[in-house]
Specification:
By secondary structure, the protein is α+β, with helices and mostly antiparallel strands. Strand 1, helix 1 and strand 2 form a beta-alpha-beta unit. Helix 4 runs parallel beside helix 6. The protein is globular and about 45 Å long. The mean pLDDT is 95.
Length: 191
């Protein structure tokens, strides 16, 4: 059975889902970085972070983080930040076999430590923290192949029906939202 959890490092709901994905979905779920901004552009509307619902969502995310036993949320200054470079490195790390480690380290840096993932040095520091070469990471940020791969996987997600992050796909069935992770797990086990 194929299980994919689509995420963008700028999404605090994706942080919640990725942080508990192993516990809820087991090791079968493959983490897949995608650009939420491109998905927003495709669907014709953007994030709640720029609406009157912002404070309600921030409070809800804090409540969920506490309920899940995660560290208290520490929001990066200026959130939502431009995480394009971080997402490029997420694709690079995924192709190198370290995608899960990179995603978890980046999410923790952003939402547990309050670090700004739009800062190039912050993002590059994640590579050696998970055992990858910083110089290789620097090259990856500018690599046309990495840029193209991020566009490609995002386009594939859109074609599969992904309308936002986090979305979990279990054999073609989509479960959108951190709060649907348990439903995805039930589909995975056939419950």
């Amino acid at each position: 059975m194929s299980t994919v959890l689509y995420y963008d490092l700028g999404s605090p709901y994706a942080y919640l889902a990725v942080s508990r994905s192993k516990l809820v979905l087991g090791s079968q779920a493959r983490l897949q970085p995608v650009l939420a901004g491109a998905i927003f552009a495709h669907r014709g509307w953007g994030s709640w972070a720029h609406t009157a619902e912002r404070e309600r969502h921030i409070a809800e995310i804090g409540r969920r983080a506490a309920a899940y036993g995660l560290p208290a949320m520490r929001w990066p200054a200026g959130w939502p930040n431009n995480t394009l470079s971080a997402m490029r490195l997420a694709v690079w790390a995924t192709d190198a076999g370290a995608g899960d480690e990179f995603a978890r380290a980046a999410f923790a840096a952003a939402f547990a430590d309050g670090k700004d993932l739009s800062d190039r040095d912050t993002v590059l520091a994640l590579a050696p923290a998970i055992g990858m070469d910083r110089e290789d990471a620097e090259l990856a940020l500018e690599s046309p192949d990495v840029k193209a791969k991020l566009r490609e996987v995002t386009d594939q997600a859109i074609a599969a029906g992904v309308g936002g992050v986090p979305t979990t796909c279990v054999d073609g069935r989509l479960f959108y939202g951190d709060d649907r992770l348990e439903s995805a797990a039930m589909a995975l086990t056939g419950s």
